[in-house]
Model the fold of this input.
Amino acid sequence: MKGVAEMCRWLAYRGEPLHPSRLILDAQHSLVAQSLNSPLGAETVNGDGFGFGWYPTGAVAGSIPAVFHSIEPAWHDENLRELTRAVESPLFFSHVRAAAGPPIQQTNCHPFRYENWLFMHNGALAGFSETKRDLTFAIDPSLYPHVHGTTDSEVLFHLALTFGLHDDPVGAMTKAVQLVESVGHDHGVRFAMQGTIAVSDGSTLWAFRYSSEGRSRSLFHSADVPSIREMYPDAENLRNFGVSAQVVVSEPLVDLPGVFLEVPESTVVVLDDAGYRHEPFMASAV
Done:
């Protein structure tokens, strides 16, 4: 059974405030560049809309992030260029979409937002047309009115919210994925979950890499900036980033060895004030 896949690319940043354009537009293999040519992606071109979500500089804990969605290809949208060069943010998400089922409309563009939370996903819930009813009915009734689009990703987000994302993000994502796999099995879907996921409350960033089959979409995070500067002392562009800068991305933004580290299968990367750490995620399920 086929799912309604989202074969996409995404980027998340946490650290000192900077203009998002430095990563989304200006990097060697920026997210906009990946929207045109994605060597590691399931789809080479990701031109079915995009999204940008950011927490304003100086925002207090619990602040609601801003979001901008468009059905234009990211490489074609002047508003994205204007916006990402004008604002500064210490934590932002950006996502370029390759739709393979759900229609091209703004409500289907990532990142999704609920209160102070941002969420985005690359991958698919296999057999979603068969499992959609059961999964949607499992969403808390108070959250259901906030599901505005038709993607499996948005349902997954609201399942995680239902299972306590506010209090325990890793535990809530575990329960959401377990439900996806259980309902999938009930409908004859052997490998129900595929994807990489980013979620943030505006302070901490969690990035998950997991698939039921153990063959997940690609995901990388940057090494710590002091180590990168030691490896490449003459790299001028590194001066644009503070010592706490951290990037998680579907594909490396530069070709320099050692700058981006692959996230292992069945792993969640937690990025906070202490830096980054890896924790197992659904490891026993693979």
Observations:
- Residues 5-285 form a domain with the Glutamine Phosphoribosylpyrophosphate, subunit 1, domain 1 fold (CATH 3.60.20.10).
